[in-house]
Design goal:
Layout (H helix, E strand, L loop, with lengths): L7 H11 L11 H28 L3 H21 L5 H20 L3 H38 L1
Helix pairs in contact: 2-3, 2-4, 3-4
């Protein structure tokens, strides 16, 4: 077991996430890995929070869409590193991801709106069909009873 009770393989996976261009089986200093993780987390939190803020505040739709996608990428990246973070880092990651979730509730991304509208249209068509079908069934029953 290595740093924080992790196996050598897990430590290599961790290092490959936070240290660019690291080679497999490369000796990794625990202090370097810890510092690299701190820097990595700080960078991704900063970009996530800045992007979320711009999504909420920018008047430019293109900026908002691009920053939303960027924030989503950094949200995902922070989720991957969370396993290797210490208690303080996990709290900061959770806070940043909470900020993203709040932004996500307020921002209506065009792609999400299109999907919602498409689903709504499908529901309306289905409901209309079922209503028409039900009406036809009732009429069939009435005419069958009348003819008998």
């Amino acid at each position: 077991m290595g740093l924080f009770g992790l196996s050598r393989k897990e430590k290599e996976i961790w290092a490959s996430i936070v240290i660019q261009r690291i080679k497999p089986d490369m000796q990794i200093d625990d202090g370097l890995l810890k510092n690299a993780t701190e820097i990595y987390i700080n960078q991704h939190i900063r970009i996530l929070e800045e992007s979320a803020r711009l999504v909420l505040e920018s008047k430019n739709n293109k900026t908002r869409e691009d920053r939303y996608e960027l924030a989503l990428q950094h949200f995902s990246t922070l989720s991957k590193i969370r396993k290797y973070a210490d208690k303080n880092q996990k709290k900061r990651i959770a806070d940043a991801q909470d900020y993203f979730m709040i932004m996500n509730e307020h921002y209506k991304h065009p792609e999400r709106i299109r999907k919602q509208e498409k689903q709504k249209l499908k529901r309306q068509k289905r409901d209309s069909f079922l209503e028409d079908y039900g009406t036809m069934e009732i009429l069939d029953d009435i005419f069958d009873d009348h003819n008998n």
